[in-house]
């Protein structure tokens, strides 16, 4: 007889297992280079935390206590006894230091402010030091050299210390009391009372080698 009608579709069977992962395709081409980002801030150097504070100290001595300098420590070697000091403007933005013996013009010598390690005075001239940055976010040499020594000196303020600056040869500022610590500058008070004895010293923190 004739073929009967097609029956209805049965229910779907269960899903078979997942097949194996195919091979990784080839890497696509490299995209175009993006735009260069903005230049980051420059790291702070010692001129940012020691030059300007020492310049202000010299300006104050020049204004209020000239002739009272006992010794000036310059660079790594020199221990100078010229009593007078002044800042000379070389250009609108640049200046140097002049030292003189019995007057500013007597046997003068010239040097850079950044070479001044310390100045000892026979008077107790009070100079307001630069306050600490708060928060102190300076980087570079200011962050790794000046700041740690400054913070340590602040922690022992009031104690008697021996400070060596320059190269440590005949530049010992000994038996002095830490009376103030500012950014880049340490102030020491002497214990001597005789005429001509050192009453006060201003030291560049960047030039300190050892503290005892």
From TrEMBL:
<feature type="region of interest" description="Disordered">
    <location>
        <begin position="1"/>
        <end position="22"/>
    </location>
</feature>
<protein>
    <recommendedName>
        <fullName>Collagen triple helix repeat-containing protein</fullName>
    </recommendedName>
</protein>
């Amino acid at each position: 007889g004739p073929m009967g009608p097609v029956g209805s579709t049965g229910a779907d069977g269960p899903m078979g297992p997942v097949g194996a992962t195919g091979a990784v395709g080839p890497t696509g081409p490299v995209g175009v280079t993006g735009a260069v980002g903005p230049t980051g801030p420059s790291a702070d150097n010692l001129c940012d935390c020691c030059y300007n504070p020492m310049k202000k100290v010299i300006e104050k001595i020049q204004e209020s206590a000239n002739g009272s300098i006992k010794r000036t420590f310059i660079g790594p070697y020199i221990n100078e006894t010229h009593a007078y000091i002044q800042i000379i403007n070389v250009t609108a933005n640049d200046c140097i230091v002049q030292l003189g013996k019995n007057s500013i013009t007597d046997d003068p010598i010239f040097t850079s402010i950044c070479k001044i390690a310390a100045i000892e005075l026979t008077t107790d001239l009070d100079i307001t030091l630069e306050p600490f940055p708060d928060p102190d976010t300076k980087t570079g040499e200011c962050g790794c050299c000046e700041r740690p020594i400054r913070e340590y000196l602040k922690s022992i303020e009031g104690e008697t210390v021996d400070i060596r600056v320059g190269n440590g040869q005949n530049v010992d500022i000994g038996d002095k009391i830490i009376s103030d610590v500012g950014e880049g500058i340490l102030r020491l008070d002497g214990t001597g009372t005789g005429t001509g004895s050192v009453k006060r010293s201003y030291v560049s923190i960047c030039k300190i080698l050892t503290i005892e």
